[in-house]
Each structure stands twice: as structure tokens, then as C-alpha cells.
Design goal:
This protein is mainly α and 526 residues long. The protein is built from 31 helices and no strands. The longest helix is centred in the N-terminal third of the chain and has 20 residues, at 41-60. The protein is flat and about 100 Å long.
């Protein structure tokens, strides 16, 4: 194997070097040492890797002095970075407790290659004195290296570093303070809690944020109790911090306290509490949120309460079961709150909510009536279709009929109803399409039908100068849907002539689409 170290093929020479290292006998290692002095640079890394394997074998078989001699030699300058770092790691770890002096030397020396290797080695070492070496080195290095050492202390998780890290978080360089605050959160020690709590009120926002993240990540159950106590504190800043911690820890047990904060404070603090209630509370808390909505005079506060209620309804497995709480409050609410409750009823859905919103069309306040109509036009299920159709035909005001008409065609062009019902809505809407805008809305819905009978409704509009452009686009959409899968020859034949007609009237991608659909229709019509 040894002669292969000088092979002209670099791959062969490198494989031989690694193999000799795995063999690990004194003869194999001597061959690698001899080759290291004459090897081309491209093979040197593989030879050093082989020596690394050999060092492990020597140490395991009782030849510690020989192993250390190799490590000490290859940690010197002039060799590849990876080689020097691996050699230093071996020199430290093989010496055990006696390697701490070498670790300290590398951490405080000027050679950054060895410094980086020493830090990584310190993280891995289980020797009890390593933390003391790391903390002792802090005073001898610049801020950049202090930051690296602090991160290493955090990764080690040794509670003996707590006091040092706390001091650095309060008085170190800016980046070091942030790193120290984060590192504190990784120490497995109850003493960390009060240390981080002190940093939560730091004047340095970056330190405060780092402490917040670290404190929120602590696994100590006492943290939850401490956060609940913070929520009861009368100091707004403390409560604000507590609310953020509740969010980060997803502390559902804090919901009652958050509701109390929302009730008894104001401004940003109230709104932050409501936002967190919306994120964490069970939907059954909806009545309590609605009670707060009824109390608030500030519009921003009412909006925050309404948003929280929306969040609760969005997470409810059966939101319609909560509509009673909304309906009960409608009669007692003033117009702005009635409008808000109507919007929440749409989020709840269901027949009870629908009936209440329909009744609100007769509200004495025009703003409430407008909200009810808008909500009905966007109602989340198809049960509203008959009502919208009736309003579109018989609404007392043109604006009411127009909004309802849009709602009808929204359902006709959607997927909430079966195809037959959607097409029937289009037929009835066609009777109400008395101007160009209403016909454009109808054509958009016709383009999303799935039954061939829709073609009979659409074709006349190809001759309408006001909407024929929209009619062509709708025909492309309808034809694409009707020709999917295995279309019947009869349907395909009905599409050939209108597609031929518009193919020459379109340009660009739409003309290309028309030609493709025409080709498909002709093929299916045979």
C-alpha cells in the first residue's frame, strides 16, 4: 500500500493515504509521515486525514506519546487549515485534563485558525474545568472573539457560566451583550430565571429582545407562573412584556388574565391583550370578548375586540353554534356595534345568523342596512341564494338590487352550489341584465359553468357590441371546461361554429387558445 502514496493518479494516492491511516500500525503511520514531506499539495489533505485516523488508532492501542507527537507537529502553521484544526483537537482531547492548558493557549493566542478549533473542541469536551477556561479567556480577547466564546458557553449549557454571562449581558460590548443574553437561556439552572428577568427591562432593545427569546424558551414551569404574575403588575411595561411572553410560550392559562388586562387598561396594552386572546383563547370565550366590544368607546379598541372575535370564530369547529351570542346582543347595540356584530354573524354562518342578518336589512340605520346587504352578498354558504335572488329582483333601491345581483352571480360562478342550480341562477340573472355592466358580470359567471346549456345563454352576447369582447373571453373559458375529459360529440359540434367565429377576432394568446379549442372540438365532433 505504501508505494501507492506516490502514484501519478491523485485519486489512487489519496485512497492509499486514507487506507494506511485506517490500518494504523506504526509502519503505516511512518509511511504517511515520510510521504507528507514530498507529497504534492493536492494529496496533502488526504495524507493528513490518514494520519488523523492513525492517531486515533495509536491512542486506542496505548501509543499515546506517538499520537501526541503527530498532533503537536501538525498543529503548526504552514499546513492546511483543516489539518491544523484537527491536529489541535487531537492534541487537546488526547491529553484529557492536561490538555486544558493547551486549550487556554489556543483560545487566547493570535492564531484564529487554532482559536476556532479550540472553541469547537471546548464545546465537545466533558472535562469539568473547560467552562473555567472559557470564562477566563474572555478578558484576554477582543469583542468579536468574546462573542464566539459566549456562544460556546451557551452551547455547553454549564450553569457555572451563569454569573459571567449575566455580567456580560449588562456591561459587555453591544454584540456580546446580546450573545450573552441568548446564551443564558441555554443554561440548565434555575438561577437563570431571575438573571433573564433583570434583562427583560434592559434599556438596550437588542438585549431585551434576546432576553425575551431566551426567557420564553426556558422549560422551567416556574416561568409560566412568573409570566402570570407579570400580567397582574400595574406597570404597563411589565404587562407589555408579559403579553409578549404569553404569545411566545402559547400560554393558554393566561387568557383570563388577558381579558382582565383588556377590560381594565387601554391603548396599545389593551389591544395587545385582545390580539393575544384572539390567538390563544378557546372559541367558547366569545361572549366575554363581545362584552368587551359592547363596553369600548374607542374605535381602535372596538376593532381589536372584533378582530379577536373573528379569530375565535375562525377556530371554532362549529362556528354557527356561537351565533346565538351575537344575535342576543344585536338589539342592545348602537349602530356601529350592530354593523360589527353583523359582520361577525357572517363569520359564524348558519341559519340563525342568516335570519338575523336578513332582518337587519330593515334596520333604522342606513349604515347597518348597507353592512347587512354587503354581508349577505358575500355570505359564506349557498343558503343565501334565494334571498339574494329575491333582493336582486325586488330590492327597494337600485343600489340594493345591484349588490344583490353581484352576490347572485358570485354564487353562480362559484362551486358552492350544484351545476344545475348555478346555471339556473345564471338564467334568472340574465333576465335582470339590463345594462352593459350587469351583462359583463353575467358573462363572467357563464364562463365558469359546467353544463352545455350555458352555451345557449352565452352565444347571443357575441353579437352585442357593448360586451362581445367579454363574451369571447367567456366562451373560451366555457369551451375549455366543456371540452375536458371525454366531451360528447353533440356538445363539441355546438362549439365548433362559435369558436370558428371568434378565432379570427382574437389575437395573441387568446387567439392561440381559440385555435387549440377549435381543433379539440372538431376532433370530438367526428
Amino acid at each position: 500500500m505504501a508505494p501507492l502514496l506516490d502514484h501519478v493518479d491523485a485519486d489512487v494516492a489519496q485512497a492509499a493515504a486514507r487506507a494506511l491511516g485506517s490500518i494504523g500500525t506504526p509502519e503505516a503511520i511512518q509511511a504517511l509521515l515520510d510521504a507528507a514531506g514530498r507529497a504534492p499539495s493536492e494529496n496533502l489533505l488526504a495524507i493528513c486525514e490518514g494520519l488523523g485516523r492513525g492517531v486515533e488508532h495509536l491512542a486506542a492501542t496505548g501509543h499515546l506519546d506517538e499520537a501526541l507527537a503527530i498532533c503537536d507537529y501538525y498543529a503548526e502553521p504552514g499546513l492546511p487549515r483543516q489539518v491544523r484544526q484537527a491536529a489541535l483537537r487531537g492534541a487537546i482531547t488526547l491529553r484529557g485534563a492536561n490538555g486544558l492548558a493547551l486549550l487556554r493557549q489556543a483560545l487566547t493566542g493570535s492564531d484564529y485558525v487554532l482559536f476556532a478549533a479550540a472553541v469547537r473542541t471546548a464545546i465537545e469536551l466533558k472535562e469539568p474545568g473547560v467552562t473555567a477556561v472559557l470564562t477566563g479567556a474572555l478578558a484576554s480577547v477582543d469583542a468579536d472573539r468574546q462573542q464566539v466564546l459566549v456562544q460556546a458557553l451557551g452551547e455547553r449549557g454549564d450553569s457555572h457560566a451563569a454569573e459571567t454571562l449575566a455580567n456580560l449581558a449588562q456591561s459587555g460590548a453591544p454584540a456580546v451583550r446580546v450573545a450573552a443574553a441568548r446564551a443564558l437561556g441555554r443554561l440548565a439552572d434555575d438561577r437563570v430565571m431571575p438573571l433573564l428577568e433583570g434583562l427583560l427591562v434592559s434599556d438596550d432593545e437588542a438585549v431585551r429582545r434576546a432576553a425575551m427569546e431566551a426567557y420564553a424558551a426556558l422549560r422551567n414551569p416556574a416561568v409560566d407562573r412568573a409570566v402570570l404574575d407579570m400580567l397582574k403588575d400595574l406597570d404597563p411595561a411589565t404587562r407589555r412584556t408579559a403579553i409578549e411572553l404569553v404569545q411566545r410560550r402559547r400560554l393558554v392559562a393566561a387568557v383570563p388574565a388577558l381579558l382582565e388586562v383588556a377590560a381594565k387598561t387601554g391603548g396599545d396594552l389593551r389591544r395587545a391583550a385582545l390580539r393575544t386572546v384572539g390567538e390563544l383563547a378557546q372559541p367558547t370565550r366569545l361572549p366575554e370578548v363581545l362584552d368587551l366590544l359592547a363596553r369600548f368607546d374607542d374605535e381602535a379598541d372596538r376593532t381589536a375586540a372584533a378582530n379577536a372575535a373573528h379569530r375565535l370564530l375562525s377556530r371554532a369547529p362549529a362556528p354557527s353554534t356561537l351565533s346565538g351570542a351575537l344575535v342576543d346582543r344585536l338589539a342592545k347595540a348602537d349602530p356601529p356595534r350592530r354593523a360589527t356584530l353583523i359582520e361577525l354573524l357572517a363569520a359564524a354562518g348558519g341559519p340563525v345568523a342568516l335570519k338575523a342578518v336578513e332582518a337587519s336589512l330593515g334596520d333604522s340605520d342606513p349604515g347597518v342596512r348597507a353592512t347587512a346587504l354587503r354581508v349577505l352578498a358575500d355570505w359564506p354558504d349557498a343558503a343565501v341564494a334565494p334571498l339574494l335572488l329575491k333582493l336582486a329582483k325586488e330590492g327597494a333601491e337600485p343600489a340594493q338590487r345591484q349588490v344583490a345581483y353581484r352576490g347572485v352571480l358570485r354564487l353562480a360562478g362559484g362551486n358552492e352550489l350544484p351545476p344545475e342550480q348555478r346555471l339556473d341562477l345564471c338564467r334568472q340573472a340574465a333576465e335582470l341584465a339590463t345594462n352593459a355592466q350587469s351583462r359583463r358580470l353575467l358573462l363572467a359567471a357563464l364562463g365558469h359553468q359546467d353544463l352545455p346549456e350555458a352555451l345557449d345563454l352565452l352565444l347571443p352576447y357575441l353579437q352585442d357590441p357593448e360586451v362581445r369582447r367579454e363574451a369571447r373571453v367567456a366562451l373560451l373559458s366555457l369551451a375549455d371546461r366543456l371540452l375536458r375529459g371525454q366531451p360528447s360529440a353533440e356538445v363539441a359540434r355546438k362549439l365548433v361554429e362559435p369558436l370558428e367565429q371568434i378565432a379570427g377576432q382574437l389575437s395573441g394568446n387568446r387567439a392561440k387558445q381559440a385555435r387549440q379549442l377549435l381543433q379539440k372540438a372538431r376532433a370530438a365532433a367526428r
